[in-house]
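This part of the workshop introduces the protein records we will be handling. A learned vocabulary of local backbone shapes supplies the integers on the structure line. Getting from the letters to the tokens is the skill we practise here. As an example, a complete record with its sequence and its structure tokens follows.
=====
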Amino acid sequence: MGIQSGPTDGHADPGLSAIMSERRRLINLAYRLLGSLAEAEDAVQETYARWYAMTPRQQEAIAVPGAWLTTVASRVCLDLLGSARARRERYVGDWVPEPLPGDAEWFSGRLGGTTADPAERVTLDESISMAFLVVLESMTPAERVAFVLHDVFRYSFAEVAEVVGRTPAACRQLASSARRRIRASQALAAPSARQAGVVRDFKRAWEAQDINALIGLLDPNVTAVADGGGLASALTHPVHGREQVARYTVDLAGRAPELTMVERTVNGQPGLVAQQDGVTVAVMAFHVLDGRITHIWAVRNPEKLRPWTAS
């Protein structure tokens, strides 16, 4: 038994190419479930380890290897989500999902469609925006798995129930609760072209250290969060309010004049990358609502910048 549906399920042939062809889909699933590319890769590696731990006869007895891999990967992620909460309670500062790069740059609000390895294995869409992932982080592990499998990957609640270990009706309730969280958070991003213009104006105001321009771009209740993980200097607590965020931004720009801000696609949305001597030292993701920036997430933890420095 296991998940039986999905556009790229495997075939009965358990050969290496058929099994490994599932990797991209598994990485896509695991990243959305875990919010970390590194953890997603580990989860998928564990899934394949379990497959190859079986005898050839056991493998041949599995009618749809892709379905088996999806079920196992989802269960591995569910277990990891349970332990992740304890790990993140010990995390230094705020934990922000690992940002994924998009195309080299974006111009006039047009986003590129290619990505650099290893993030090219993750399809960048609405369910991968930073705002969306942050809301997923607020869910219980069961809610997150039920919602992602059903609403994002379109698996039935009967299939989800096999992963979560609850009834289909209970999984339906979990996904419904998760859906309400998404709606309440207004996590769906503004159209990319509109967000691109706002983010570009933010970049210009940063470079000019223009506090009034910054205040005009920020929502009155804007929140700025930084993730250094104890490995890079960063805010230890979120900054709230547009005047406070604007002052912090101007102060940071004044203290780090050597930084170069580059327009980049971050998790499928317009964002900014701070570079020093050509090296990425921070990635900034934004959430724009009604033409104003409501959230800024700055990731400085070098372990989370691996996809940005490896390409």
